[in-house]
Design a protein that fits this description.
Blueprint lengths: L11 H17 L5 E3 L2 E5 L4 E5 L2 E3 L10
Antiparallel strand pairs: 1-4, 2-3
């Protein structure tokens, strides 16, 4: 679901779209409370950034009643 590959230029807009796609995947699977916030590690010498996306999901959520 993440389109960025090693060696690509950093594109904030694409990263946001990819993160939203990951969140949507989990929410569609019943995890309404999911966190997917990127962590970055900069390497200014080589002009690179490592992006780590830990995913923390809450308990599954079920529909109880619809009015």
């Amino acid at each position: 679901m993440i389109h960025a590959e090693s060696g690509d230029y950093f594109n904030r807009a694409e990263l946001i779209k990819d993160l939203q796609a990951v969140r949507t995947l989990y929410r569609d699977a019943g995890f309404a409370n999911v966190e997917a916030e990127p962590e970055t590690e900069l390497d200014p010498v080589h002009e690179r950034v490592d992006i780590i996306v830990p995913i923390k999901r809450g308990p599954p959520v079920y529909i109880e009643r619809i009015e």
